[in-house]
Amino acid sequence: MSATVASPKHLLGMDGMSRDGLEEILDLTDTFAEVGRRSIPKVPALRGKTVASLFFEDSTRTRMSFETAAKRLSADTMTFTAGSSSLSKGESLRDTVEVIGSYGADAIVVRHGMAGTPHRVADWTDACVINAGDGCHEHPTQALLDCYTLREKRGNLDGMRIAIVGDVRNSRVARSNVLAFSMLGAEVVLVAPPTLLPPSVDGWPVSISHDLDQVLTGLDACYLLRMQRERINEGLVPSLREYASDYGMDARRAKLLPADAVILHPGPTNPGVELTVEVATDPRSVILDQVSNGVSVRMAVLFMLLGSVLDVAPSRSSDDSEADG
Predict the structure, then answer these.
(1) For residues 113 and 132, is the Cβ–Cβ distance under 8 A?
(2) Percentage of the residues of the chain whose pLDDT score is greater than 70
(3) What is the CATH number of domain 2-138+291-315?
(4) Strand 50-55 relative to strand 107-112: parallel, antiparallel, unpaired?
(5) pTM score, whole prediction
(6) pLDDT at position 322, please?
(7) Domain formed by 140-289, architecture
């Protein structure tokens, strides 16, 4: 299949994206999901391009899925490790970005603990910049893969009622998902104790609840956020056990959800805190689907930024390999 795809410069957040732009990425993801199901899940769409990973925070799912996505598109990859870099010698972030740019990076995937860092990086380089999580601000590709997963299960998000449960205050995932879900026509309710909500949600297209049991029966999807253990030290929750009692998804609460509801979590989970092992393996849980869809979504994002004409027809060599068994 060949098609011409519009190419924006960066993906820094869901804020400012249009519904049409969001749906274009989700539609393109369908194509790359099909590539991932092939015996040889690789296409030459970005051959000759270089994707650099610039991660200043630990990551498994996001980092590996971006690197897998780049390799499946036949791009070269570079990986920056903060602990073994010249940052320990006083090199500035800008110096690091400029060095990576001088090596020929066409795209830089940035994760940093300070909000707004990917926007600064975009000012310092000619490369395309993708926000892989910045502080408590945004995590746009997580929102994209969550939207894609819900669309796979429900067809579209129009009219869905989705609860985002837990530490909304400190969650970049929650911020991006509120924007993305509502942009696609869903109604979003934030469910958390007052201490885990932002100081203000003025302007957020959401409703608020402090009672998870009260909202469960009317949900189409329940998105459980990861609870960081440091929130106890900060005095935001009395204990993980009490948090789980009030806001954790266990078998009793799962029974209150409609039979066709969807259970999501960005991972990694804290078993027995946000949800029990029994709920994680419930047929309505799509946690593993989120992980696999992350690669397809990030392939779509990389191609949107770096590609031009998309040709993902299986190559002759792929056909021959399949024929040879």
Answers:
(1) no
(2) 90
(3) 3.40.50.1370
(4) parallel
(5) 0.91
(6) 43
(7) 3-Layer(aba) Sandwich (3.40)
